[in-house]
TrEMBL record:
It is a multi-pass membrane protein. Keywords: Cell membrane, Membrane, Transmembrane, Transmembrane helix, Transport. One of its GO terms (cellular component) is plasma membrane. Pfam families: BPD_transp_1 (PF00528). This is ABC-type transporter, integral membrane subunit. Belongs to the binding-protein-dependent transport system permease family. The chain crosses the membrane at residues 12-37, 73-92, 104-125, 159-179, 262-282.
Length: 292
C-alpha cells in the first residue's frame, strides 16, 4: 500500500519535474557546456577550447571591474536591504496599535515595478529638466552632469539606487521577518519576562536565535538578487560612465548581444553562478555550525 502511494506521488510529480528539467536544468547544463567552446550562433557547436574562455575572463579587466561593482552592491545590500527590514520588523512587532496599517504601508513599495521606479529615478538626475538640477538652480548653484561623471554617478546612481532596490524588495523581506517574529512562541517571552530579562536580553538571547533560519534564507535570496542585477544599471547608465556601474550580468549581456560572443558571455554568467553558489554553501555551513 505504501509503495503504491509512493508511486502515485511520483506520477503526479512527474510532469512538473520534466518541465523543471527541460526549462531549468537543461539550459544551465547546456550553457556550461557551451562555455568550453568558441561558439557562434550561426555555426554550432563551435570549436572546443577547454578553459580558454575562463582564462580570458580572469584576465579581462572589465570582468574584474564588474565583479568589484557586484561585491560593492552586495556589501551595501547587507546594510540597506538586509538589516533595515529586520530592524523595522522588530520595531513594528513591539507596536500594539495600527500594526496592520504600518505593515501595509511598508509593503506598498514592493508592488511597484522596479523598471518604472528606476526610470523615474533617472529623470531626477537629468541635466536639463531633472529635479536635482532644478533644486541646485533655485539655490544659485551650477547644474551638474550627474550620470556622466564617474565620481558623481556613485552618489546619484550607485548608492542611492540601492535604496530603490531596498525599497522595492525590503517590503517583502519586512513581511517575512514579521511573520517569523509572530511565530516565536509567546511562552518563551513570558518565561524570559518572569526571569527578569529586558528587551535587549530577549532580543539577542531569544528572538534572533529563533528566527535565524529566516535570516539565513533571506541573506541567500538577497545575495542571488544582487548578483543578478541588470535592469537598474542598464536603464540608468548602461553600465557607465567608464563602466563604473557595470555588473557581471550587464557585461555578459553586452558581450552576447553587442559583440556576438555568446560562449564568452555564458562563461561570465557561469562565473557569477559559481560565486553565488559558493557564498550560499558558506552561509549554509555557517548556519549549521551556529545551530549546533
Amino acid at each position: 500500500m505504501k509503495k503504491r502511494r509512493w508511486n502515485s506521488g511520483w506520477l503526479f510529480l512527474l510532469p512538473a519535474l520534466i518541465a523543471f528539467i527541460m526549462f531549468k536544468y537543461y539550459p544551465i547544463l547546456s550553457g556550461i557546456t557551451i562555455s568550453f567552446f568558441r561558439y557562434q550562433i550561426m555555426k554550432p557547436p563551435g570549436v572546443f577550447i577547454g578553459f580558454g574562455n575562463y582564462i580570458r575572463a580572469f584576465r579581462d579587466p572589465y570582468v574584474l571591474n564588474a565583479l568589484k561593482n557586484n561585491l560593492e552592491f552586495w556589501a551595501i545590500m547587507l546594510i540597506l536591504n538586509f538589516w533595515v527590514p529586520l530592524v523595522l520588523a522588530i520595531m513594528v512587532n513591539e507596536v500594539k496599535k495600527f500594526k496592520g496599517l504600518i505593515r501595509t504601508l511598508f509593503y506598498i513599495p514592493a508592488i511597484l515595478p522596479s523598471v518604472v521606479v528606476t526610470v523615474l529615478w533617472k529623470y531626477i538626475w537629468q541635466p536639463d529638466y531633472g529635479l536635482a538640477n532644478y533644486i541646485l538652480g533655485q539655490a544659485g548653484l551650477p547644474h551638474q552632469l550627474w550620470l556622466n561623471s564617474t565620481f558623481l554617478v556613485k552618489w546619484c546612481m550607485r548608492y542611492p539606487y540601492l535604496f530603490i532596490f531596498a525599497g522595492l524588495s525590503a517590503g517583502m523581506d519586512f513581511i517575512i521577518y514579521l511573520a517569523s517574529l509572530n511565530n516565536v512562541p509567546k511562552e518563551l517571552y513570558e518565561s524570559a519576562q518572569i526571569d527578569g530579562a529586558g528587551f535587549w536580553s530577549k532580543l539577542f538571547s531569544l528572538t534572533l536565535p529563533t528566527i535565524r533560519p529566516t535570516i539565513s534564507m533571506l541573506l541567500i535570496t538577497n545575495t542571488i538578487a544582487i548578483f543578478n542585477l541588470f535592469d537598474e544599471p542598464k536603464i540608468m547608465t548602461g553600465g557607465g560612465p567608464a563602466k563604473s556601474t557595470e555588473t557581471l550580468v550587464l557585461y555578459a549581456f553586452d558581450k552576447a548581444y553587442t559583440g556576438g560572443e555568446y560562449s564568452y558571455a555564458i562563461t561570465i554568467t557561469t562565473i557569477a553562478f559559481v560565486i553565488v553558489f559558493l557564498l550560499t554553501i558558506l552561509q549554509m555551513r555557517m548556519q549549521k555550525r551556529a545551530n549546533r
